[in-house]
Amino acid sequence: MADTKIFFDNASTTKVDPRVLEDMIPYFSQHYGNPSSLHDFGDAAHGALDNARNQVASLINADDEEIYFTSCGTESNNLALWGLTRAAKKKSRHIITSVIEHQSIINPLKDIRKEGWEITHIGVDSNGSVNPDLIKKAITDDTVLISIMHANNEVGTIQNINEISEIAKQNEILFHSDGVATAGVIPVDIGELGVDAYSFSSQQMYGPKGAAALYLKKGVRLKPSLLGGIQERGRRAGTENIPAIVGFGRACEIAKDELDKNAKHVSSIRDKLVEGIIRNIDKVKLNGHPIRRIPGSAHISFEFIEGESILLMLNMEGIFTASGSSCASQALKSSYVLVEMGLSTTMAQGSISFSLGKYNTGDEVDRTICVLPPIIERLRKMSPLFKE
Amino acid sequence: MADTKIFFDNASTTKVDPRVLEDMIPYFSQHYGNPSSLHDFGDAAHGALDNARNQVASLINADDEEIYFTSCGTESNNLALWGLTRAAKKKSRHIITSVIEHQSIINPLKDIRKEGWEITHIGVDSNGSVNPDLIKKAITDDTVLISIMHANNEVGTIQNINEISEIAKQNEILFHSDGVATAGVIPVDIGELGVDAYSFSSQQMYGPKGAAALYLKKGVRLKPSLLGGIQERGRRAGTENIPAIVGFGRACEIAKDELDKNAKHVSSIRDKLVEGIIRNIDKVKLNGHPIRRIPGSAHISFEFIEGESILLMLNMEGIFTASGSSCASQALKSSYVLVEMGLSTTMAQGSISFSLGKYNTGDEVDRTICVLPPIIERLRKMSPLFKE
């Protein structure tokens, strides 16, 4: 591996902020109690759990008791879908979602469909945006739930959640949004957003893996998926992962405090990267919405060549990126998100996702802009599709 | 709180071994990659995942590819029950379990029953033992699955898993065992045990919270519960919690290496505690099997008084114990395990679980033996049930 290590794959996971890790350490071997215990030794854990719940709730301006801890974003999304549909009182069974949701939404919905639910998948435009009017039109008397992600994890496009939540409210339909790509990255006020349920995860905001949350608006009914003890007020059994939850809490606190600063920094170096690539390389296309986009996302198609090849050559230079979503990367398939946005297969396959984070620097961007053009040139020379 | 801190609640959770924590640290902020990534930065995580899987498999003498990581013991148990029943090809729907299983078995089975399965709950004798003959008799043509815990988390009784697995094999019935209380504590050779699925957890063996495993014998079909990416070969979606998994792996390695030493130490101080209590206090009863019992377990009923009161007075002395199971402790109900063992309500309610671990010492036991008799005396004097 090259000596340089430039991590442009922050959508996949992030480095744990050292301040977060520092807060976690005492909960492994010192305050290792179980918060469900009746004795004082569980008190430190119990207090830490309460404190973290408050920090997590504060990030999205929710009440503490609206936050339920889970083990990862995938679990939050699965819990929301299964939990809301199974708790639905209505006999009717129709869900509206989009074609570009994360796999942890798409795949459970396939199973929910097998249980007799009808699923409507709303398409997106070439920017990856869901048109709220299409959701409105898809609503039937049977619609129980809408699930639309806040921002797409691959191309970064932010959806018009406010407008969708208005539609949901007018029709008395539950609205869940997958906020894994947005919480801690852009401002989220859950009341303003108007959703009934919202998933978000620690590992995408410089917190540890192993903790995530499902926000559930007061009064919304949810059938739990994991059954056992009465942890999380009966919504999620299993001993709470206190060190990870403590880290998640601190990560939320830091994210909130430094959100503006980080967003400015990340979007400025991201813009520099995009401009540099466009200026120095022909036949490239920035994917996703040009403006309504999360700060770190730079998803670019390079015509005539394979994204995998670019990824591997950048990798040899110590620059780490993704092609498609990280969850799907090992499947080596063309990204369904890009296909749904109308990109041709060749453009979709020639794409790279640079996802920048708060630890990235302008120098790293400069190095990438310097290294990338000769890589693209070399690959294009080898490509049977490319003619100069 | 008293200056002394004696943690006799190791069945609830354990202190993370400092060697385990040390191994975990680099995976938070240094090798924080996602093992699903295609670039080299995910390699360290990927290698760590493979290594941990090998360490975990080795503990129970399984093959690496028979280990699936989950987030906690509760998830492993839920996954086993839902996954095995949903994947069952047979049209028949009958499960055999015991009356003293952990809540993460009992509660999902209530839901599985609602889906049309018949559940037979086998009773236990006064030692908390399941008689394999009763299982044999309960088998019908419709039986698909048997789930019997390896050892009970409250009273420590070890079940005759070998005999039950023989019965299961003869009748071509799947056999799952909850090994949360046993793996890392007593020798477990999964081949000798003869089970098809086995749940075990990191936090009960001086590993971190946030990691557990489901052993699944090669060829056994399981429908996943968490759907999304293709992690854990499609059996459990969600980014792997690498630091916790690394810690779990190391905890398994240490547990294996030091199993004999720890078992000897823990059972010797446990026996000392039990003898000291019996010698110094009248009208006490050791619950659970006198011999077939996990090393750390000392579950004792004190006649005429409330376990909660003993727990709280021990707590004031800095001695931390449990009454009933930790998961149920906040529910303040009499332990169903004790009731099923035939203890009278007053005996069941007057019981305390001392669960000792490798960090406990003979001095801690001496202190407890010294402190406990006057507590019991005081409480009995206050008790309307007690007559000298």
What does this structure look like?
The structure is a homodimer of 388-residue chains. Chain A is α/β, with parallel strands linked by helices. Chain A folds into two domains: 6-14 and 259-382, Alpha-Beta Complex (Aspartate Aminotransferase, domain 1); 18-254, Aspartate Aminotransferase, domain 2 (3-Layer(aba) Sandwich), CATH 3.40.640.10. Helix content of chain A is 41%, strand content 14%. The first copy, chain A, contains 15 helices and twelve strands. Chain A has a seven-stranded mixed β-sheet with strand order 2-8-7-6-5-3-4, sandwiched between helices. Residues 325-330 of chain A have low confidence and may be disordered. The interface between A and B is large, with 75 and 75 residues.
Give the count of structural domains of chain A: 2
Biggest interchain interface, per-side counts: A-B, 75 and 75 residues
The dominant shape of chain A is globular
* Cross-sheet strand order for the largest sheet of chain A: 2-8-7-6-5-3-4
Report the CATH C-level class of the largest domain in chain A. Answer: Alpha Beta
Contiguous uncertain segments of 5+ residues of chain A: 325-330
Q: What oligomeric state is this?
A: homodimer
Reported for the largest beta sheet of chain A, the result is:
7 strands, mixed
CATH evolutionary superfamily of the largest domain in chain A: Type I PLP-dependent aspartate aminotransferase-like (Major domain)
Briefly note the structural class of the backbone of chain A. Answer: alpha/beta
**CATH T-level topology of the largest domain in chain A:** Aspartate Aminotransferase, domain 2
Distance between the termini of chain A: 32 Å
